[in-house]
Amino acid sequence: MTELLQKNIADHVVLSTTETEEFCNLFEQRFIKKKSFLLREGEVCKFEGFVVKGLFRVYHIDKNGFEQILYFAIENWWITDIDSFTTETPSQLYIEALEDSEVLLISKKDKEFAYSNLPRIEKLFRVMTQKTHVALQRRMIDNLSKTAELRYIEFSEKYPQLFQRLSNIQIAAYLGITNVFLSNIRKKIASKK
């Protein structure tokens, strides 16, 4: 159950076998059925999660009813509403399983326990937070400076394992365009080949 989590931790920081086991024991295993929610808007996010199996989308619905996908999470990715989790305020996000999924969840209390008793865990989350900030900054710059067509091409090249598992509607919502516009982009790309 925790082998993938242990590998993920080892990719970021060096922990002893005992520290790794103690940290992994703080997680609760959950199975989430396709189309079920791990979090809904208005709920307080009480977890940080690690995806062992499956696919999730993290999204917001704007005042006009349009879905805005912040990110997708597949195996070996972390998932949460960091704002709600940190501030213990109602979430503005939905976290929905797009496939039958398995996640490992850690509560805020257990995470704080890990910070106090396993000092290198704080470094783990600092390193992951920095990587998340870098990815978010790059995505913001891309959305401001690149065409939808270029963003689509780069998304398909950067995340081929994810790209194959998503519908056109989901990809369009992630790119911030309509499904019709995405279809036009795909036709344009196909005609160039």
From TrEMBL:
Gene3D superfamilies referenced in this protein's UniProt entry, alphabetically: Jelly Rolls
Domain of life: Bacteria
Cited SUPFAM superfamilies: cAMP-binding domain-like
InterPro entries attached to this UniProt entry: cNMP-bd_dom, cNMP-bd_dom_sf, RmlC-like_jellyroll
Domain Cyclic nucleotide-binding: 30-110
Any Pfam family matching the protein: cNMP_binding
Protein name: cAMP-binding protein
